[in-house]
Amino acid sequence: MLPGNDESSGQATPEMSVEKATGEDFVVALSDRDSERLEACFHPEVRMRALVPPGFQELRGSSAVVARLNSWFAQAESIQVLEKSVYQVADRLHIRYRFRELYADGDSEIIEQDAYCDLREGQIAAMDLLCSGHRPETRAKVADVHHFDAGDLGCSSGLPEEFRRQVDSVPVGGILEVSTRDPSAKEDLPSLTRLLGHRVVSVSSSPDGSTVLVVQRGR
Fold this sequence. Notes:
By secondary structure, this protein is α+β, with helices and mostly antiparallel strands. The chain folds into 2 domains: 18-136, Nuclear Transport Factor 2, Chain: A, CATH 3.10.450.50; 145-216, TusA-like domain (Translation Initiation Factor IF3, 2-Layer Sandwich), CATH 3.30.110. 24% of the residues lie in helices and 41% in strands. The chain contains 5 helices and 11 strands, in the order H-H-E-E-H-E-E-E-E-E-E-H-E-H-E-E. It is elongated, with a radius of gyration of 20 Å. 27% of the residues are buried.
């Protein structure tokens, strides 16, 4: 684990420095594509220099920087955080992250970025970023499918809790197929899936009238 690496949810803790908390917020906001939270990480007069596969880019102003960052991930249906680290290098903050981008057609790509930042009053005032580009993910192995028959267990009788436990038992990127006879689950479980940071692959009905939800585990 790299110095200062924190694989938690990215929420600031009392002992976390202001600089590291800003870096953690940046990764969460970028992967969630939360523009408001992302812009709050930047000083209004921020300068970003980026070396990306198309070439060198330089932008100024928080709105322009956020728009450019979001544009790089706009086509993905969802983003999984595979790895991240946030730590100080002398007077600069190093933010490193690797994302898996999942697309509606089932394809996925890996992207890794390293950013060295100067902060002013707890916000990123300058960022020098190096990007790997969007790299197609090798699909040599099909993910194992895990099955969970919830039976008559419903959203008011413990299904959400058991669903969380079942998803947590699946490796990141793995597939969970859930079958339930609870009618409300067709609406409630997909919403819960997205709230937990996972991907809804499909929602269908089986011949016996059960709802079948296929989920890919995210972070």
